[in-house]
Amino acid sequence: MTTDFVVRRFSFLVVSASLVWAAGCGSSSHSTTTTTTTTTTGANVLPIAVDGGPTAHQTNGSIYENAAFATATVCVPGSTSNCVTIDNLLVDTGSVGLRVFEPEVSSLGLPALNASNGSPAYNCVSFVDGSYLWGQVEQADVGLGAETASKVPIQVISSSNTGVPSSCSNGSSQNDNTVALLGANGILGVGLEPTDCYYEGGSACSPLAGLSTPPPIYYTCSGSSCSPAYIAVSNQVTDPVALFPTDNNGVVVELPAVSGSEATVSGSLVFGIGTESNNQLSSSATIFTLTCDDLFTTVFNGTSNGPDPNNNCAGGSFIDSGSNALFFPNATNIPTCPKNSPIGDLSAWYCPSSTESLSATNEGANGSSKTTDFSVANAETLFTSSSTDTDAAFSGLAGVNPTDVGFDWGLPFFYGVNVYVAMDGQAMPSGTPAGPWWAY
């Protein structure tokens, strides 16, 4: 058994125009309060696990470190029997929608959805780690725990590398179109937006955007030639949670605290915020409203990592369970790992001589602020310790971000902290600002 030591950041690479969101009111300033309370019961609770992923227990398989996985049921619309169950779906607060591999659902014969020109729609999603996924948009009923969303547009990931337009791949060879490459059986994106092109009310990919050409997110194809196309909001890849009859305004990610490293960690994805007794906003949680492509500001070592609206929102910070570490610019000159390590090129990771205890302050557009403590361990030591072949959860794993990317609060941030993801455009509880916002 091996770990793959790969930097994974499955937050969207935003290609649409920036939108400045209206700020809510309120302010607070205090340190993070950790909790080990995890909701385990309720119709709106989906179990999640950091357990190494789909190949962790296979011969010659690998462990996907710091990744939370869940299970979904995918059915032909209107059917309760023509279904498949797909496990090991990466739970990702940095992206939107269900994305599954074609072989997983090919037996169902799901109906294709069309772009605005009447031809079958294909979706391209690019991530900040340089990888991308390409595949047709199809419709399915999606069950998550005891909740079901009907007629959900999903991305069915193509297993082929041919026919992918250059405007999608953007010169990258990182087509994560297999389980081995993605490290998962698909992605369950439960981010801040209801659809993956929701900017400007969902119109950025539709004719309503008024753009001279469609953005390179949705395509139609003629033979082997594919070109960007407009698509109605209702046919865009959609977060299944947004289509639940209830509990549809966001999620709460709950994972227990991790000390050092652990083989597995079990937690919950709770649907809804303020809609049930088990998803009420904690009195200790601070709300961070957002600006400029759903980003906020992290102040670290005197440097403000906030989005620059004059530079495509560069430098902004975000919370992303799909990132397998904390990634941030090296403002404190933490030593990085060797490029020629015996186990490979580790230069993207931090390797301090001993674990460093650090803190940063997150600031919302609403004036809220909260100081968050975190640790950075020696990644090479983590990867080569005696428990490497069994451990999937690492609390101190951290890596380097370019200075124009900002702070990426990846999965280690979630350990011991309940994180609320409030969705844009959905009804929120009385007394809380309209989404999108984070809270913890």
Could you characterize the architecture of this molecule?
The chain has 440 residues and is mostly beta strands. The protein has helices spanning 102-105, 166-169, 179-182, 379-384; strands spanning 2-3, 29-31, 45-50, 62-63, 69-75, 83-92, 96-101, 122-126, 132-144, 147-157, 186-190, 218-222, 225-228, 250-254, 261-262, 265-271, 287-289, 297-300, 303-305, 318-319, 326-328, 356-363, 369-376, 393-394, 398-400, 408-409, 419-422, 437-439. It has a 6-stranded antiparallel beta sheet with strand order 3-16-14-27-28-17, with no helix packed on it. The chain has a 6-stranded mixed barrel with strand order 5-6-11-7-10-9. A 5-stranded mixed beta sheet has the order 2-23-22-18-19, with no helix packed on it. A hairpin with a 2-residue loop joins strand 12 (218-222) and strand 13 (225-228). The longest helix has 6 residues, at 379-384. It is globular. The model is unreliable at 13-35 (pLDDT under 50).
Radius of gyration: 20 Å
Overall geometry comes to globular
- Please write the CATH class name: Mainly Beta
Give a short account of the largest sheet.
6 strands, antiparallel
The strands making up the biggest β-sheet line up spatially as: 3-16-14-27-28-17
Question: On the 0-100 scale, what is the average pLDDT?
Answer: 88
CATH T-level fold name: Cathepsin D, subunit A, domain 1
Please give the CATH architecture: Beta Barrel
Termini separation: 35 Å
CATH homologous superfamily? Acid Proteases
